[in-house]
Structure formats: C-alpha cells, structure tokens
Design a protein that fits this description.
5-stranded mixed β-sheet; 35% helix; 15 strands; alpha/beta; globular; 415 residues; 14 helices
Length: 415
C-alpha cells in the first residue's frame, strides 16, 4: 500500500502572503460547495422531489467539515471497503492515513426504492445538500466502537449516543448548498481556505495549533505561550465548537471566554483565535492523529498534544479510558507521515511562593505547590459563588465559568 507523501511542502498564497504547508494528501483542499448559481438552483429544485435524510447535529457538523476540505483528502462519505480499511488499518483505500471512519447514518425506510440521489436536511427540514448515493451498508455500531475507541464501555459519550444511531450507512459524494453550522458560530468560525488566508497574512509559515474543548485556564495559557516561544511563528488557538460532551461548558460561553482571554492576554501580532466546527469522538490516540491531519488542512505545522488528549474522562469503573500519554505517543508516531510536528505538553505545577509555573520535574525540593481539582472547582468555588484564584484562571474566564455553572443549575432544576 502506498502511503501519502508526508513532506512538509509549502504553498504560496496568491494574495502575496507567506507560504503555508500544503493540505494533507497532496491534492489540495477538497471543496464540495455548489458555487454556481444556476447549478445550485437546478439542484435545489430537483431536491424537492428526492427522499430526504434528516441529519443529526453530529452529521451536520461532519457534512460541513467534509464540504470545506477539513478532512482532505477525503471527499465523500466512505464506502464500505474504505470504512473497513479505516477501522482496522487507519487508512483510506488510496493509502492515506485517516484514523476515524466517516459514513452517513440513514434509517432503513428512506432507502425504499434504492434511490440514487438523496436530499440531506437539518432538523427543521431545510435542504443542506444532495448526496449521490454510491453504496448502502448496514451499520455495526458496537464493532465500530471497539475499533475506534478501543472498547465500548457504557460510560463513553459516543457509545451512549450511538445507541440511537440509524441502522444503515450511506456512502457517496455530497453537493452542499450552505454551511449553517459555520454561520451559527459567527465570523470566527473560518473554513480552511479562509483561515489559511488569515494565517498567510500574518507572515509566518510556522503555525502552532492548540486544540481544546474546554475553557482555557492559566496553565493552558502557559502551555501555549511556551510552545510558541519554542518554535516561533503564529499561535493558532483552535477550539472545537461542534458536538462535545453533554456536560461540557456550552460553545457560546466558551467562545466568550476564549475571545476575552486572547484579546487581553495574548499578542495579536502572533496569536489568532479561530473556531473549528468539529464533532468530537473522544477517541483518544486515534483522535489525536485525526486532529493533526485536520490542523494541517487548516495550515498548521505543529500541534500541541496534552495529557489524555481527546479523552472522555473515566469509564463506568472510574478508570480513565486511555493512559495519560497514549494520545501523545500515537500522534508522535505518525508525526512525520502527517507532516505536522507534535509538541508534547508537559505537566506543569504552580509554585505558590514564586507566582510562576514550572514543569513538574523542575519543582524545587520543599517548594509549596498550589493545585485545584475539577471537583474542588465545582463544589468549593462555583457552587458557593466563590471567585476562582487568579493563579488558576483569569478573572474574565472565572466570571464566564460562574455563569456557565449557574445556567447548568437552572437547566437541571427546570427553571
């Protein structure tokens, strides 16, 4: 099997900006958007008479990420053979590394008459795309969970969600009319092409990406600034704002916290905040590799990978799903092939008397170290309305977290 070219080849921006790394796979960014007005009108009219598959929120995010080229070189929902190859070899049938399967769930009743075209809609019935159906095959969700997640423990958020997935998968290339999820998240939610334009204009071909689905605290600020100082270039704060865990802080509040943090505490000359509408799988090591591929498509040359990257938390026995460094190890293993260097985020500790963070192995003997657990944050601070200490999180972020906790309490009480 021929593996994809992993060279860190650069690409020149036509507007005169600096050169950026080429998209993964060597074929440029995939673009599945219907841009021609006449073609769009004809296709929309035809869609009115097609069977309709209403997409889940996850599938809507997957459709948009596929359409804008974030999953390049993938340009369609996977055939059965490609799906199987990804499950067990982590490769597309062309040989390119790709660790996460992408197929389109569909209920059996839509498939009557073996349609060759199907309209894809959101939950309100608005047509988003027309899919040219290449293949239909049964979904074996439990087998998929074992392959992708390494197990099917009942506490994993994707396992819980997958219990309600439809019975079949569709394969084929969609022709997409609109990007409503991108629009929902506003102008900070840039496509790979849009983000590449911004990054190129900032003047650095080296781009260090930081993935997160949580609010950023002082320790994350320290990690990102250290990474930028180590390699130079541009720091890309690139949080996932698609489907995450139900208990996570909502995307809207997180974005508010990201914006105030970046605007106040980072240098605008070398730092850019951009949102990514990715529906996470919480697949740990595999997802870390996926994140690196995706970030190359957005223009990044480096990815910060932390402890338990893309981990879902404890399983039903209270044990972490993955080892703390499993994701780092797999991302590092495939780093050369992807062409994105892995920056391993070291564990940091706060020295109370010196008001600074150091790597854990650099803590002086006998030094006082401050720490707060997630449980303490919730029970001893947020639940009691106490302001989190500034060594732990910036005051602006603390205020957002307090509102997030209050909203969660209102929702649980039904008020």
């Amino acid at each position: 099997m021929n593996h994809a070219d992993a060279s860190s080849e650069v690409q020149h921006d036509a507007s005169g900006g600096c050169e950026l790394i080429t998209p993964f796979g060597g074929h440029g960014l995939v673009d599945l958007i219907v841009h021609d007005k006449d073609e769009r009108a004809e296709l929309l009219e035809r869609a009115q008479n097609l069977p309709v598959v209403p997409l889940s929120l996850r599938a809507q995010y997957d459709l948009e990420m596929l359409a804008v080229g974030a999953f390049s070189p993938l340009d369609r929902f996977m055939s059965r053979s490609e799906y199987e190859s990804v499950l067990y070899e982590m490769r597309l049938t062309g040989g390119e590394l790709f660790p996460i399967p992408l197929a389109l769930p569909c209920r059996e009743e839509v498939l009557r008459g073996h349609p060759r075209e199907i309209a894809l809609s959101d939950e309100q019935g608005v047509i988003l795309a027309v899919l040219d159906v290449d293949e239909v095959y049964p979904a074996d969700v439990l087998r998929e969970m074992r392959a992708v997640l390494g197990g099917r423990d009942s506490a994993h958020p994707l396992v819980i969600e997958a219990k309600n997935w439809p019975s079949h998968y569709l394969a084929g290339r969609p022709r997409v009319f609109d990007l409503p999820r991108h629009r929902l998240h506003g102008p900070l939610c840039r496509t790979p092409a849009e983000l590449r334009t911004r990054l190129s204009a900032m003047g650095h071909s080296t781009v260090v990406a930081f993935q997160t689905r949580n609010p950023m605290h002082r320790i994350h600020e320290e990690l990102t600034k250290r990474a930028l100082q180590a390699v130079g270039g541009t720091l890309l704060i690139h949080p996932a704002v698609g489907v995450t865990r139900p208990q996570d802080v909502t995307a809207a509040l997180r974005v508010e916290a990201y914006e105030v943090l970046v605007d106040t505490y980072y240098d605008p000359d070398d730092t850019l905040l951009s949102l990514m509408p990715l529906a996470m799988r919480f697949a740990g090591p595999r997802e870390a590799v996926w994140h690196a591929i995706i970030r190359r498509n957005y223009g990044a040359t480096h990815l910060i990978v932390g402890r338990d990257h893309a981990g879902p938390g404890p399983d039903s026995h209270g044990v972490p799903f993955y080892g703390p460094y499993d994701a780092q190890a797999m991302a590092e293993h495939y780093s050369d092939e992807i062409g994105v260097k892995t920056i391993l985020a070291r564990e940091l500790a706060y020295l109370t008397d010196e008001d600074r963070y150091v790597e854990l192995n650099e803590v002086p003997y006998g030094a006082r170290v401050s720490s707060i657990s997630g449980t303490q944050v919730r029970e001893e601070y947020l639940a009691k309305g106490r302001r989190l200490p500034e060594w732990f999180t910036r005051p602006e972020v603390a205020e957002v977290l307090q509102r997030a906790y209050a909203q969660a309490g209102d929702a649980s009480s039904g008020s």
